[in-house]
Amino acid sequence: EADIYQTPRYLVIGTGKKITLECSQTMGHDKMYWYQQDPGMELHLIHYSYGVNSTEKGDLSSESTVSRIRTEHFPLTLESARPSHTSQYLCASENGETQYFGPGTRLLVL
Amino acid sequence: GNSVTQMEGPVTLSEEAFLTINCTYTATGYPSLFWYVQYPGEGLQLLLKATKADDKGSNKGFEATYRKETTSFHLEKGSVQVSDSAVYFCALRGGSNYKLTFGKGTLLTVNP
Question: What is the side-by-side order of every strand in the sheet holding A65-66?
Fold first, then answer.
């Protein structure tokens, strides 16, 4: 069983605020991913990392940024949140071919 | 590029009914195929996978067979339970592309 954690689980903030969504895993996996999940359930890859100091943009353009300074930590930052950022954000890490997902952060921007 | 097309939902069944969720794919080479499940309020978790043609993945009573000739990986369960209510995602990883390509998800609701 994989251990991957996301905080906060729920976040309600006002427009213009800076936020950071945390993601941590304890398995030592090199590959990590951020997905945005819309209300229709579809998943969109927005960022990924193949290891420390490696970050790439995903298939869906996003105003968010990520960093990977430590293997276990892959935070996502929005410098100025807008209502269009309202969504669920899922973090995942990968061992071999299997991705392990965190429980998600549900973000509401007012 | 790679793509996954899965049956649109929502799917509503009675307990003990037979379940099929169709999934077809487009990919170059020989992709690995996956079914992930997302229970309410949770992230996705791997349900089963198959890595080569004619392989059958199975877990928790669910099965799917990798059919290269029809480029399909349909999910089946003989008798669903209320606890199977969730969103099911078909996915593939093909060739040198490390990223997973997901289908749009199918919401399954099982009524008692």
Answer: A4-7, A19-25, A76-78, A65-66
Task: Closest CB to A41: pick one of B41, B99, B107.
Answer: B107
Q: How many angstroms separate the CA atoms of B33 and B50, rounded?
A: 5
Task: Give the pLDDT confidence of A39-88 residue by residue, as tens digits.
Answer: 878 899 999 999 999 999 998 888 999 999 999 999 999 999 999 999 99
In the prediction, which pLDDT does B9 show?
A: 86
- Match 């895993």 to its residue by tokens: A25
With CB atoms and an 8 Å threshold, state whether B49 touches A98.
yes
Percent of all residues in chain B with a pLDDT value above 90, rounded to a whole number: 82
Tell me which chain B residues have a C-beta less than 8 angstroms from the C-beta of A33: 99
SS3 A83: helix
The amino acid that residue A52 corresponds to is V
Per-residue b or e along A65-103, where b marks 16 or more CB atoms closer than 10 Å to that residue's CB: ebebeebbebbbebeebeeebbbbbbbbbbeeebbbbbb
Q: Do B43 and A50 touch (CB under 8 A)?
A: no
